[in-house]
């Protein structure tokens, strides 16, 4: 049994089927996707924007943190997203996730991106993302933040190569993305390395101010990816680490 005091003092940790419940406190949420049914889309995640051209199904994955992962399989380059319904619409949010590609990519392929302040329908999307993207130089990937306003995408800040070593298919990668007021911050690092203390980049943008949904998005045809950990902190809270 977990000792509550060793994890998040002052916040209740709930248990479900011997695993942490995704709701771990008033403003913190986490999932290893181990509470969901294999072969199905997570029951409390909703498809947004373009519903076709992809599947997001929980699968048993050796080497994953909880034994399962969300496998995102693409067949079309549409703007697709999933929102996590357990997390209330909030403006100030931090997201932490672990992901990996399970096939090769080409230059400018998006891998998978956490999404904050999500809103709108297809062609009128709104919100912020921090997207690792495939490259064929440097460390083989870059990360850059961006926004959708009325369906129009604009990159924010500067795309920067991730830390060494070079990223290859099946390498696990961590991303932390924080949106607080008009401040947006990101950092990305390899699994097994210590999380950097400082963010890789912080930018200021006031285009999307309203509270919105939290989730994941992917817009290119490839590569297929797996996400085995996703956590959220709201209203100034840190997205908890596993």
Describe the structure.
The protein is mainly β and 242 residues long. It has one domain (28-234): Sandwich (Jelly Rolls), CATH 2.60.120. It is built from no helices and 17 strands. Strands 3, 5, 6, 8, 13, 14, 15 and 17 form an eight-stranded antiparallel β-sheet that branches. A hairpin with a 7-residue loop joins strand 5 (54-60) and strand 6. The radius of gyration is 17 Å and the shape is globular. It starts with 14 loop residues before the first strand and ends in an 8-residue tail after the last strand.
In short:
With 242 residues, this protein is mostly beta strands.
Radius of gyration: 17 Å
Query: How confident overall, as mean pLDDT?
Result: 90
How far from one another are the termini? 15 Å
- Indicate how many domains the architecture comprises: 1
Helices and strands, in order, run as: EEEEEEEEEEEEEEEEE
Stretches where pLDDT is under 50 for at least 5 consecutive residues are 1-21
* DSSP E strands, number: 17
Count of DSSP helices? 0
Q: What is the CATH first-level class name?
A: Mainly Beta
Silhouette: globular
Percent helix: under 10%
Largest sheet composition: 8 strands, antiparallel
Question: Roughly what fraction of the amino acids lie in strands?
Answer: over 45%
In CATH terms, what is the fold-level topology?
Answer: Jelly Rolls
Specify the structural class.
mainly beta
Please state the second-level CATH architecture. Sandwich
């Amino acid at each position: 049994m977990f000792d509550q005091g060793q994890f998040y003092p002052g916040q209740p940790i709930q248990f479900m089927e011997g695993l942490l419940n995704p709701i771990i406190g008033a403003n913190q949420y986490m999932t290893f996707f181990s509470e969901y049914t294999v072969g199905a889309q997570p029951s409390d995640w909703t498809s947004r924007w373009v519903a076709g051209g992809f599947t997001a199904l929980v699968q048993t994955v050796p080497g994953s943190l909880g034994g399962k992962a969300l496998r995102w399989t693409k067949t079309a380059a549409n703007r697709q997203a999933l929102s996590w319904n357990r997390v209330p619409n909030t403006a100030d949010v931090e997201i932490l996730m672990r992901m990996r590609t399970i096939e090769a990519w080409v230059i400018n392929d998006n891998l998978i991106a956490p999404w904050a302040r999500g809103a709108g329908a297809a062609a009128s999307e709104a919100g912020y993302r921090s997207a690792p993207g495939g490259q064929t130089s440097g460390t083989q990937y870059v990360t850059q933040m961006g926004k959708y306003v009325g369906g129009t995408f604009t990159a924010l800040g500067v795309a920067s190569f991730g830390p060494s070593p070079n990223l290859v298919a099946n390498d696990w990668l961590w991303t932390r993305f924080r949106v607080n007021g008009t401040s947006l911050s990101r950092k990305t690092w390899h699994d097994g390395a210590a999380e950097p203390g400082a963010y890789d980049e912080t930018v200021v943008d006031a285009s999307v101010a309203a509270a919105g949904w939290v989730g994941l998005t992917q817009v290119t045809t490839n590569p297929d990816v797996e996400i085995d950990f996703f956590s959220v902190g709201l209203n100034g809270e840190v997205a908890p680490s596993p």
